Amino acid sequence: MTAVLAEQAPPDRAARRRAGLTGTLIATVILVTAIAPLATDMYVPAFPRVAGDLSATATQVQVTLTTFFVGMALGQLVGGPVSDRYGRRRLLIAALVLMSGASIVCAGTASIGVMMAARFVQGFAGGWAMVIGRAVIVDLATGARLVRVLNVIAGVGGIAPIVGPLLGAAILQLSHWRLSFWVVAAMGAAMTLATVLAVPESLPRERRHGGGLRTFAVAGRQVLASRGYVGYLLVSGSAMGALFAYVATSAFVLQSMNGMSPVAYSIDFAANAAGMTVAALVAARLAGRVATRTVILTRQVAALAAGVAMVAGAVWCGTPVLLAMICFLVMMTAQGVIGPNAGALASAEVPQHPGTGSAMLGFVQWLAAGTIAPIAGLGGERTALPMALLMTGGAALSMIGLLVVARVPRYRA
Questions:
Q1: CA distance 291 to 402
Q2: What confidence score (pLDDT) does residue 61 get?
Q3: In the beta sheet, which residues pair with residue 287?
Q4: Would you kindly state where each structural domain of the chain is located, as residue ranges?
Q5: CB of 250 within 8 A of CB of 118?
Q6: Does 17-208 carry CATH code 2.40.50.140?
Q7: Is this structure's pTM higher than 0.85?
Q8: Rounded to whole angstroms, how far apart are CA atoms 397 and 364?
Q9: 183 alpha carbon, distance to own chain's centre
Q10: What is the Cα–Cα distance from 102 to 123, expressed in whole angstroms?
Q11: Using CA atoms, how far apart are residues 85 and 68, in angstroms rounded to an integer?
């Protein structure tokens, strides 16, 4: 009799979540979260040509990267809470359309000022889309499944740093730098269509939070009142800062200081990004088998050791190339595990505000990226010490977030 009643009973929320989290939806979210980084990685190799074509200085072209990061951080901060109120699907579609439009403006502009503004809008819309994509996953998955899916998204999405620069370089060889923005616009259009077809509304009306800025402020205070959430926020943000210290400075360390050719550097960078991807996929396999905090801690220890080794090499050995390559690989693979796992634990701490929690997380991550990147290069092209100190400090601060701030977790996976 019990079995019959169970078969006739409506599915519970967990069952509905499992049914909604399809492979097609996950693939769409992966592409949505990768398209914004691609918009940057494809564009960076063209900086010198952009400066010449737009009659701009190198600094002005660099500002277009800064405006993109600022836009992405703000887009993630705003997009999550707004989607908590109005739902996910329509806002995700709107963000992708806006990003495609901004990419078209970038492709056609003849003014560096317009480029800066369009890049801000592109980053804002891209960040908006990324945070809503993550919120959709949080709506539809819990526990070990959430950790596993976020690791898969991070792992497959990690291909973007490999493909982006190579694709951008190929475009420069065969065509004009403006084509890279047309490619991003076309990808945005394709993702819009995929979202229309594959992404359901994951946040029903009864679970939405009404209100305006006041409600956002209240939700933000509630999210930040969770000690566990703040701890994991510190874990993820500090790791992101350490990662971008590497991204911003590794070319100078390996090429300017050690004479590595651009081709060899590109291969090394791609290998590190591939290691980051593999590490995230391995972490996805461990979800539910090994405690997530344990997985994070092991990679934090590795990242800290790599940072300390880089500091020692910078102070006493002139940063030899082999040491730098090994430390960079360890750092990249560590961040491929720390970021998505800390994000999953952070989301689990604030299940009542998934959009706001995801927004805060994305904001802190990209704010750290935009802040650390220029600081890492303050020492110039002939020393790796600032970068090494930032790598070490980021790893140490990340460990403090895990072991001190979030020392009494309410969620274990």
A1: 13
A2: 75
A3: 290
A4: 17-208, 215-406
A5: no
A6: no
A7: no
A8: 14
A9: 21
A10: 9
A11: 26
